[in-house]
């Protein structure tokens, strides 16, 4: 039995189930993906995938929209250290998505986001 192929098949099935649960969101092969981490109480990786109509977030036991993730973080962590950590990640994700959109619509126009500086 090919466990790698089985794992990829199960992952694809899970994504399809998630997209069915959010019928207003459709997939596209041109989606953007970003992984940040480890973060949170589980020290999990936070993975986002931008698809037509929204953003899907996956981390630990959570899978859903960016808005649902933000609500879950607020309800579970509030302003504790993990809530602040996720809050920083969410701000970064939104800024990253805005930058990518600006680059797509006007690749030669500066985004207004400063380049990273060496610490």
Q: How does this model look, in words?
A:
47% of the residues lie in helices and 22% in strands. The protein is built from three helices and four strands; from the N terminus they run αββββαα. Strands 1-2-3-4 form a four-stranded antiparallel β-sheet. α2 (66-77) packs antiparallel against α3. The termini are far apart. The model is unreliable at 22-29 (pLDDT under 50).
Number of helices: 3
How would you spell out the order of helices and strands? HEEEEHH
Mean pLDDT: 76
Largest sheet: 4 strands, antiparallel
Strand content bin: 15-25%
Question: Which geometry do the CA atoms define?
Answer: globular
Task: Order the strands across the largest sheet as they lie in space.
Answer: 1-2-3-4
Structural class based on helices, strands and sheet pairing = alpha+beta
Beta-strand segment tally = 4
Uncertain segments of ≥5 residues (pLDDT<50)? 22-29
Helix content: 40-55%
Cα end-to-end separation: 48 Å
Radius of gyration: 16 Å
Features:
four-stranded antiparallel sheet; 47% helix; alpha+beta; 3 helices; 4 strands
In short:
The protein is of the alpha+beta class and 119 residues long. Helices cover 47% and strands 22% of the residues. It has a domain at 26-105.
What does the secondary structure layout of this molecule look like, with pairings?
Elements: H1 3-21, E1 32-39, E2 44-51, E3 54-59, E4 62-65, H2 66-77, H3 81-105
Antiparallel strand pairs: 1-2, 2-3, 3-4
Helix pairs in contact: 2-3
